[in-house]
Amino acid sequence: MCNPQSVDIVASAEDRSTIDIDSTDREFVEMIKRVGGPNIQSCYQCGTCSGSCPAGARTNYLVRLIIRKALLGLKEECISAPELWYCTTCYTCTDRCPQDVKPTDVIKAIRNIAVAEGHMLKPHQSVALKVLEAGHAVPLDKESWQKLREKVGLEPVPPNASRYHETIEEIRKLAKKSGFDKLIAPKEE
Amino acid sequence: MAKHKFYHFLGCIIPHRYPSIEKAARIVFEDLGLELLDMEGASCCPAPGVFGSFDRVTWATIAARNLTIAEAGGHPITTGCNGCFASLWDANHELKHDEELMKTVNDNLAEINREFKGSIEVTHYVDALYSIAGLEKIRKHVTRPLTGVRMALHPGCHWMRPAALKQKDNSERPHIFRELCETSGATYVPYKDELICCGAGGAVRTADVKVALDFTKQKFNSLLEAGGADIIVTPCPFCELQLDLGQVEIKKHFDLDYQFDILHVVELLALAFGHEPEEFGLSTHLQYMQRKSEPNWERLGLKT
Ligand code: SF4
Ligand code: SF4
Predict the structure, then answer these.
(1) CATH code for residues A6-116
(2) Predicted ipTM?
(3) pLDDT digits over B180-194, tens only?
(4) Which residue's alpha carbon is at the smallest distance from atom 2 of ligand 1?
């Protein structure tokens, strides 16, 4: 199995220091429960999730660890961890968790909080922008893609947002209303 | 009996990168007497692991906008993508069961004069084929069984997981997808990592393609350990992209060679129903386009 270079598998000395319970964020768990992980407090740390996790098998992503940190209120550590983004949302852990914690949903909720607080990876920002620009995360953005469609005997442009510009207008209005456009706006360095 | 009609939700990857799946779906559904209606002005589903990870309310709002298009016509949706299915089915389910979310979403949708009502169902091609058309009818259409073709499966995640919510199949020992694929006459080849994720989902492919490909390699190696197969069949275009184009990318990033033909289940059925691969453009799969290669016709039992 590979250890991708982008992954630092050695815990830093800082990670091993004593947890100062007074400086943790008690509100974090309540936030996660509100945003989409209501069962997080049922976790009894059995590790079934991490034992089942294909992302954990090849990276330093440990779903049980993130849940434990979240329960301790270590918000910054959770939302700024690059490995938070290695979960493929395969739901294997969710199907196996004996406590119905729904770890996948907990991770997605923590990701929502991370994004709201400015932790968004650049490539993710561009995918989100594509939906606002073209109505699709994977757009029909080259003539060769239209040719490919013609080659299989289909009309060059499908009847989705690629054909109907009004769709893109509607998506933009929705993103503005929900504040998503600001959320994904490229940040000043 | 009235003809079953479905709104055909295309998503992004099928119409924009793997149009052969769109064409094969049209062929197979027509053969089975199921009507596919265009869903004019539909957008990205939007990608559940991506948008759902960024902002749940925006994800649900854009998904609900797509649902309103089908609600206006009063027919269920069908989609050939596990990701689109996850977004549309999950959003439909969550909105119907979460009043607060529904209120927020409808408040957003009012901005574009739309309203989510919760009046339709969302299906995957697999559901439409297995539960609506039925295996018996499908078998009757198989005029060119793929006898002797060794077929491995990659069911993928989101059409059956989370199992407690989807209530469709046992996600540890699924049988629905296998039974559907076996109607083609091909021989099912089990392998240890059949049920692990292809690696593309959850915004991982976008974040770090090498990590995503490492999942794919594990699947391929597991299959080779089990003796290999002539084809790998999946019900999802994103998995198909990861397994198909992924072979070209694995060569680039890891200098490893794999040679598998990857078929979407509707492409498999189109062949079994006697259609020629040219009718839906099997050779436009991105691995063939980029490698300037062709499907392994001999192994597929199609040309000698
Ligand atoms: S499987 Fe469930 S209970 Fe066990 S550690 Fe993971 S989240 Fe906690
Ligand atoms: S959903 Fe995420 S955390 Fe759970 S098993 Fe899959 S990759 Fe691991």
Answers:
(1) 1.10.1060.10
(2) 0.95
(3) 999 999 999 999 999
(4) A97
